[in-house]
Request: fold
Amino acid sequence: MMGDFNQILTSDENYSISTYTLPVRGMEEFQECLTLCELEDNETRGTHFTWENGQLEDHILLKLDRVLGNQSWRDNFSDVYVFFDAPGDSDHSPCVVDLNVNLRSRKCIFKYFSFLATHPIFLEAIKSAWEKDIPVGSKLFSLGQKLNHVKKACRKLNKEGFSNIQQRARDALAKLQDIQSRLLTQPSDNLFREEFVARKEWKFFEKAEGIFYKRKSRIRWLTLGEGNFGHQAQNAIQYLVDNDDQRVDQNEAVKSMAVEYFQTLLGQETRKFSRSQWKN
Reply:
């Protein structure tokens, strides 16, 4: 169900320069109607507000247009999303419902590498991105916009400071070795200073490269997770055998037997377990 409902649903769906009296009764009735019909908004992108009155002195923005769906709709179109564009010469935003988003697009996964935090202007860049002005909207909308700004700042830092990190580390080491060769041949104050700066730069890239490879190996482990989980399952304790030679495989019972075994091992006067009673 989609269209102009001529009614806002929550207080954050309106913005006005001057005082605007909220249609509280209409909002309550609209909420009751959607609850009764088991309808909810589909995922929305683009503009938050969908209508404006076009009056400069008393400008009002409202979210009047929406696309609603029930549980059956969401089960059949789990990847659907709604896009509201800028209105142009209209007072309402045009709306597009995309039913095949996964068939035509591929999301680029954002990966945060901790070596970004070693960049000299990391905190400054993140703070600046977080404090950028956000268009008026719900708290969730504002949070999403702030996180997008921070992701862009991280990508920019990565591109400018750490792109092709392996080559940068090799170049930094080659530069350091060149300075050291000249320093050990014809020492000078300038070369001492250059060697100090070059060593610091190489250490910086070496540390970043180490973090990069560690993270990459973790990603590879997750990619091959099925095999790793199989290895874990093979080495896990599946069951224990109690003093009556009865198999115990319930999770809580296994835990209790393990605790009791180690209590006995540490000297408490309880029944003893032999190592042969433990089975993998």
User: Anything to note?
Assistant: The chain has four domains: 2-104, 114-162, 165-224, 236-279.
